[in-house]
């Protein structure tokens, strides 16, 4: 996993450092433009021209704040995978994965399963939300995607061994079951719910882990 994911996030860091250098140069140019402008309107136009496309994306900020390079690298790869499927993943990372009892490798497996399921189930052009946040001594991770509402019985039925909604059953139906087994090993908890985002229903799958 280290060989696979760490180089990805190190490439992201180098890209951001290059943007930081560009940003510093632009700031110097902005100072010079404002100082030499004859009118406020002229200064506004100069500044507008110099500030275009110099920031980094919100997802990149979230990835750089992640304390695990392996998890950040894997998330970066999933974002690109979603883009190919005409989907957008929005990250909100608060809480430290490496400070939990649950190993990074287990987090990576759970995140991969939840995101793969969401990517496969989401309508084209929609947004998938991934959130992590500290809840007392636990870390909560949730993945939300646009879908019709599910009852509690329907949610939990999906965690059964060999249960799948995919047309081809071969090799499917073990992802959520494996997550359930993981929560049992580390005395965590499965999280499921329906959530309304912009008047649209989203199904939420997640875990609460020590």
Report on the structure:
- The structure is a single chain.
- The protein folds into 2 domains: 2-51; 58-209, Histidine kinase-like ATPase, C-terminal domain (Heat Shock Protein 90, 2-Layer Sandwich), CATH 3.30.565.
- α1 (2-36) crosses α4.
- Helix content is 50%, strand content 20%.
- The chain has a 5-stranded mixed sheet with strand order 1-2-3-5-4.
- It has helices spanning 2-36, 40-51, 58-65, 69-84, 104-121, 152-157, 175-185, and strands spanning 88-93, 127-135, 138-146, 189-197, 200-209.
- The protein is an alpha+beta fold.
- It is elongated and about 70 Å long.
- β4 (189-197) and β5 (200-209) form a beta hairpin.
- Residues 102-210 form the Histidine kinase/HSP90-like ATPase domain.
Task: Describe the structure concisely.
The protein is an alpha+beta fold and 210 residues long. It contains seven helices and five strands; from the N terminus they run ααααβαββααββ.
